[in-house]
Write a structure and sequence with these properties.
Elements: H1 2-21, H2 26-37, H3 47-51, H4 53-71, H5 74-80, H6 82-86, H7 90-107, H8 111-121, H9 126-139, H10 147-173, H11 180-210, H12 215-236, H13 244-258, H14 260-288, H15 294-319, H16 327-336, H17 342-347, H18 350-353, H19 359-388
Length: 393
């Protein structure tokens, strides 16, 4: 296990550094390191780490979403208004509908299986998007229209929406039927997650004001609370829908709104933690990618992905109708909503494990979507923000 961790860190850092030298996103090198070290190639990552890979990726995601919350000013989101809400579900809906319509023609699968595939593909990756939006906020790009804040918040709620739909479609495919409560659970999950985060944030602020402690201890307390949110989501998922990850962001945003000086200090500490968490996250996402499946879907999968991404961009622009954003800013927002990684790695294999006839096809296209869109989105964001966004000094 120690050897595996050493290889993950060293190979991940080395390939990330090479990619950065080549003017490419470091995460591309991390994904590549995971693929090389993973079970389908050199198989140098120990089974113990692979067994807890999902939990480790969850921890890394919690760290970046906590940092995102600590930088998310609710006043900025209120300025954006309607588009921020629409970005939570409209682009994903456009992409899901496109996949549902076109996948049966390209792969001869049922409409229901195509809807499941659409739900797998439709989630944007906060792990790719959020760190870049934080960087833009720190440097002042796009902040005059709160573009990074809108993208950051929307990309997190987008995942909740898509995962609930995925669970609904899987229930239908495995014979458990479809319930209207499943759709109702989407807004309930989002609202309860936000409410839990706000209440917990207010309680922690009171604690931090009364009890003197080092900021490092406060970070550990916040992380522990965030882990409890995600655990609570899993424990209650059959009875009460709750988004643990949105609760994590809401907690951080509450700290920023009510105790700004502390939030800014803690954000710096989480930024340092993210260096290791990012490495672990993307190497393990790469290790979850099985490149053997890609040859099974061929060029048809690329055609489907391109078509779905175009429809996603159309959905983004629908959200931005009658806003103050100019054409360049709308184009940047569309690019920022392209990358996929964490959700696809987490749920792409579930249809295959459940025995669906199209399970291999769904997994193969999910793998391909990570390989294509994660670097595409990251490169697009990194290389266009200075050209497409204005800077507030």
């Amino acid at each position: 296990m120690l050897l595996s961790l050493a290889l993950i860190l060293l190979i991940g850092l080395a390939l990330s550094g090479i990619m950065i030298k080549l003017k490419l996103p470091g995460l591309l090198g991390m994904l590549l390191a995971g693929i090389i070290l993973g079970p389908t190639m050199l198989n140098l990552i120990s089974p113990q780490i692979l067994d807890i890979s999902k939990d480790l990726r969850q921890i890394a995601l919690i760290i970046i979403l906590t940092r995102a919350g600590l930088s998310l000013d609710i006043k900025d989101l209120k300025k954006v208004g309607r588009p921020a809400l629409l970005m939570c579900f409209v682009p994903a809906t456009f992409e899901l509908v496109a996949v549902t319509l076109f996948a049966p023609m390209l792969f001869h699968i049922s409409t229901l299986d195509a809807a499941i595939l659409g739900a797998v593909l439709a989630a944007v990756s906060p792990a790719v998007v959020v760190p870049r939006m934080l960087k833009l906020m720190e440097s002042g790009y796009g902040t005059n229209h709160s573009i990074p804040q809108m993208i950051m918040a929307g990309s997190s709620a987008d995942d909740v929406y898509v995962i609930v739909l995925f669970a609904a479609f899987m229930g239908m495919a495995t014979g458990n039927g479809f319930s209207a409560f499943t759709l109702l659970s989407i807004p309930i999950s989002i609202l309860l997650g936000i409410l839990l985060g706000i209440m917990s944030g207010l309680m922690l602020i009171r604690l931090f004001r009364i009890v003197h402690m080092r900021d490092t201890i406060k970070v550990l307390i916040i992380l522990s609370a965030s882990f409890l949110f995600v655990t609570l989501e899993s424990a209650l998922k059959t009875t009460i829908p709750l988004s643990g990850l949105l609760a994590v962001m809401a907690l951080g945003a509450t700290l920023l709104g009510k105790y700004e000086s502390l939030a800014k200090r803690l954000s710096g500490k989480f930024a340092k933690s993210w260096v290791a968490a990012e490495l672990l996250l993307f190497v393990l996402v790469g290790a979850a990618v099985d490149i053997r499946y890609i040859a099974q879907v061929g060029i048809a999968a690329v055609v489907l992905l391109v078509g779905a991404l175009i429809m996603r961009m159309v959905g983004v622009n629908v959200c931005l109708i009658n806003t103050r954003l100019n054409h360049k800013e709308k184009l940047f927002t569309s690019i920022a909503y392209l990358p996929k990684a964490t959700v696809q790695a987490a749920i792409g294999s579930i249809p295959l494990a459940a025995g669906l006839a199209s399970g291999n096809t769904i997994l193969s296209i999910a793998v391909l979507s990570i390989i294509i869109t994660a670097p595409l989105g990251a490169i697009g964001i990194d290389n266009t923000y200075k050209k497409l966004l204005s800077r507030t000094t």
